[in-house]
Design brief:
mainly alpha
Length: 105
């Protein structure tokens, strides 16, 4: 499960980088700035997972984050290249690291 979660996250991040640089024609520095929500959510979730791990059954700790993370690539698949960063890709980046961080704890 951890392997699959990390595969989804890494593939998503690689494809997002290509999307920003090749489709939206933004420079690499702006692409890296757009990754900040992904990093911040990943860092913020580690203490949260540690706090709720003993209170929630393991089945739900794996199922719910995996479903939420699966929504992230789906959001990027239906986004229009001309749409705003805040409407589509921002939310996809927020949802992306949830399963990988939850399964590591």
């Amino acid at each position: 499960m951890v392997f699959i979660a990390w595969a989804v996250v890494n593939t998503f991040e690689y494809n997002f980088s290509l999307y920003v640089q090749q489709v939206q024609l933004l420079p690499a520095i702006q692409a890296s700035i757009r990754f900040l929500p992904n990093i911040l959510v990943g860092v913020a979730l580690i203490p949260l997972w540690g706090a709720i791990m003993h209170k929630v059954p393991a089945y739900y700790l794996v199922l719910v984050p995996s479903v939420v993370t699966a929504v992230s690539p789906l959001l990027m698949a239906v986004i229009k290249p001309t749409s705003s960063y805040w409407l589509g890709s921002f939310w996809a980046l927020l949802l992306s690291p949830i399963a990988a961080d939850g399964e590591l704890v």
